[in-house]
Design a protein that fits this description.
The chain has 90 residues and is α+β, with helices and mostly antiparallel strands. The protein has 2 helices and 4 strands, in the order E-E-E-E-H-H. Helix 1 packs across helix 2. The radius of gyration is 15 Å and the shape is globular.
């Protein structure tokens, strides 16, 4: 299997899905790997929320990954994700 293809200069916003599910024969489950890429600009916040929402709804496990140091922007991104998770659980 090949890895996700991304551009170094950005332009990857959206949900990227692995081409085929992995199968865990021991537990008899299929695993679908998705990756979300968000835009850093404030004017893309509504689009980012939709991307995170769809990823949450498709996932049984969600891992937040951030490049570099945990700064204010990454905390804001994580805050959006946790707010949505709280909304889903209500």
């Amino acid at each position: 299997m090949s890895r996700f293809r991304v551009k170094d200069a950005g332009g990857n916003a959206g949900i990227w899905m692995w081409s085929e599910p992995l199968h865990d024969a021991e537990r008899d489950v299929s695993i679908l790997i998705i990756d979300t890429e968000l835009e850093a600009s404030e004017d893309k916040k509504a689009e980012n929320i939709k991307i995170i929402a769809l990823a949450f709804l498709l996932s049984s496990l969600f891992i937040h990954n951030s490049k570099g140091d945990i700064d204010e922007k990454s905390c804001a991104s994580l805050s959006i994700a946790t707010e949505f998770a709280t909304f889903i659980n209500q």
